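>> received
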Amino acid sequence: PAFIALISGFKTGRLQAQSSPASPANAVSQSFGTGPAYIHASRFYVTKALRDLPVALPHTSGQMKEAADRMREKANALNRARFKPVAGEADPVVQTVQGTRTANAIAPAIDYEADSMMSGTPPDPNGAVGPNNYVESINAEYHVYDKAGHSIAGPVDFMTLFPGSEDDGDPIVLYDKFADRWVITEFQLPASPPYYLLVAVSKTNDPAGQYYTWWFNTGSNYPDYPKYSIWSDGYYSTSQWFNGPNTLSPQLITVLERNRMLAGSPSAGMIVGNLPAKYPFGGNNSLSTAPKTFDCDGVLPPYGTPNYLVFFNNVNSGGYSNSIYLYSLATDTTAKTITSAIADSLPTQPFNAFFNPSGYQDISQPAQPNSLDALDGTFNFRVGYMKFTGYNSVVLCNTVNTGSMVAGIRWYELRQAEPSGTWSIYQQATYAPADGISRWNGSICMDNYGNISLAYNVSSNSVYPGIRYTGRLASDPPGTMNFAEQTAVNGSASGNNSWTQYNRWGDYSNTTLDPTDGVTFWHCNEYVGPAGGQNTRIFSFKIDSALGVPEQQKPQAALTVYQNGQELNVLASQLPSNDKTFVDLFALNGKQLNSQQLVPASGNLITEIDVTGLATGIYLVRIGNVNFQVVKKVFVKGN
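>> returned
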């Protein structure tokens, strides 16, 4: 949500960096009401290369974002008033001890200090990994690194990327591996409307190069806490929508026209659709506190496959049930419409998503009891979607109160059976070792083998706010994180009063999957550095099988694909088993063009795919079965 600027953004020498934005000539003037609607960008322009933009420099003017943040606080008081505790139900799936697998098996491979927060609170740290780079964003700047942690471009102020904006924050970075492009977003929330969603897409695969940028006018609808995801038919976005300081608006879903944005079209638009009524089940739920949509890891689903909206209902917060709700989102990019319909309601084991009715005074740190926001009430960013042979998998997590204001992390793996499309909870648990330490602000991710990582913040009366993580193998007993907890970075102090007076933390972190191997996790999060500053950390790690002492790393399947005339030659080696394996060819929009079923011999597989008649361009080859998958991007020269 909108952040509080303590030392306002980075303004020196910004607007001279590029030409003024222009409105597209064919923009449609359509009011953004309560949906549905189709909105063209009100501004479009192309930036200079990011490496040529000036580095952000701090300055010392007063608070810029107080009005926007106060609007959020007033509106969120409505949510807190609804989330009232009732007679508690015990959590029967709490993991109260750490796993026993050696932590060396998930030791960080890359670990480096990233940007620190100088302009406000909270920092909203997040980022994305690509083939050669990691791009981080915080309030209110972004920074391009190589994978070793060397600075390539930045840090650059968002006001340089979006001239005329006010650095209102809530930035998100995504890497669209299917198109080999980068997506950077933030919002514009001035003291009075109109409000804006700001989106930039890289012109090429170079994250330090030029960007296409669009401003989408949301009128008097205040899009707090926007979260984006990649799907085959668009870039999906949800927000916590307000209409003024004391009114929760009907909740909306927006879909950006991915294909037009990748082409740099000034006329790229935003499709707006209605979501269910604010409180559709008679009780309290997280629909109005920023529900999430699925974000594709692995391969894209076939074009036209609905995305899904996910949120929860909680008895301990005053709701009628403990449930996860899934709504399908069918987008018609021709008619410019989105249709939502309930797909499943999945009963969960009891949990408690309620902390403090009066504000953000939840998590303790040394000498500052109950001083940090638990970020309760919503699933954490991102909700990763993985398509396997025979089923699809989604992992998600949220903060829970395990008692005495000590936070833990409830996590789930949902599975969708194919071809029936039925969803179920495959496994669920609450990770909360009984040591009095809060674990919150989690981020969960799955790799191509079905292994799961869970990274999060830690803090207590005796532990400074830091970053830790754990994980599990796909073969481990369901509902357990079997690796011993690993420390990415310890906190060095409690937060200083310049920002902890607002009790803010996060508001989020995230973990992304390395597209080069499908097994390396990259996590970005906040911790407290020396003198109580808001620092951020980026690190990567893999989850490997512990096969005795010393550790033996599980071989990773290797895939080579090259064109020979009208055929693609596919060579796979080091496959994890000789079980039946699928070899599939996909277009970048997710359309399946070819599929074969083969049985490897001694962990090896060789086959050919006929590409006669295909247009010149980039395609995806996937090999895999229910236990693993590997995806390779290949250039095909057409006839």
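>> The radius of gyration is 23 Å.
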